[in-house]
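Cross-posted from the bioinformatics board.
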Amino acid sequence: MFVYILGGFLGSGKTTLLMKIASMYTKRGLKTALLVNESGEIGVDGATLRAEGYDAIELPDGCICCSLSGTLQTALKNIEDDIDPDIVIVEPTGLALPFKVKELVVSSGVNAEGIYIIGITDVERFLILVSKKEEFIKRQMSGADFVLINKKDIAKPGQIEEIQSWFSKEFPDKEVFVISAKTGENLESVYGMMK
Amino acid sequence: MSGEKTSLEEAGGVATGVTGRIGCWNADSEARLSKAMLEVGKWVESEAGVMLGHIKSAVTLDDGSGITLNLTDLSNGVEKHGELAPTDKVNFTFMSAVLDVDQHELYHKMVDAVDDSGLLYEIDENEHHCHCHDHDHGHEHHHEHGKKPIVVNNYYGEVHIHHHCGCCGKECECHDHDECGCHEHHHEHEEGCGCGHEHHHEHGEECCCGHDHGHEHHHEECKCCCEESEAAVVNNFYGEVHIHYYCSCEDCECHEHEHEECCCGHEHHHEHCHEHHHEHDEGCGCGHDHGHEHHHHD
């Protein structure tokens, strides 16, 4: 199976992207498992997914990259044993460090053919976020195999270019895509990057 | 995790929320819940300068179908996903994960926002960890009476706002805390309870809170046998170390009171811990005119 980790800050559009990717794989006839993590005791993303017709495994009340690391590994083993999916999409909390999640997937012992991190940012708040929490954002994006600048549909003039410029400077080797997970704009490029 | 920071701590983020049910769900309820979310968002912005994070709600039927409301940017407002027809009762979750605010205050704002929204709601009890009672709060507890249970159990500190003592559950019965045995109260005895209510302990009556305070209460109206003395001072007894304030002279060793009882009728618990040092016929050194004779055994 292939494991995809969607890494991005709170509100960047991870859940919306997760649903789009899950739909894409389902249409391709692949068995897809969704693992959703939320830091609060109260999970909403699971409800969001259920409301939209998706069935997800929820891991609330902690972060799978740190406080729920063991829970993540157990959940992955159970998913492999019980569902044996072709694809597992993991959505950590918006405050998680995806590279740590990847390390945990590697050490979980599941038979993953590939583990990829998709970094996702949103055009509206990214620069504010960088101005306040740049080190954290760098760490959050550091493990990404490629990066998506989301919410193209509501971007103001110059915003996208400024974010691209930041990624060019900080992560010159990473491929960056500008998309709208909500409208589906340019998602084909993303799907092209996936197995 | 051997002291290593969690990612939440590293980012300076907090996450909290509530679950419960909303009655008479319809478009108006949806607007009210959205407004509550916006209120919380505005508060986060006022606290942190900018709202970085998200505020979400899910409103669902028992089968899991329903809608979600999502607020990530105040200027864009609350986004709705899904559809839900008007119905008698729905389940709801309301959560926030944001940066640079106090978690307890955030929780308080969320509950207040729902409470002020006019929604017909009930919030699940025991939803939250009651971790506040292991701390020395250093603050007064202010029970708001007559509100919904989740509000009744609010504790307002100097800064901290604790709403989440789910251990009592039921509406606060003023000062009968017997059901809630989970915490110690940390009121300074001199200052009395800060809740703004009068406490109605009859003299000699045990405190109704069920805790062993390890001391006598301050008699407010009680007059000691020596009527002109300041009983509130005279009768202070703190724990095992009894502190009596009413004699400042130092050298008298002429008598002991043994097991005398005060004539006021109260049990003062005078142990053998003190001696009075008055020379016979000498006045007490406390400065008050006691207007009586002390009980001289001899």
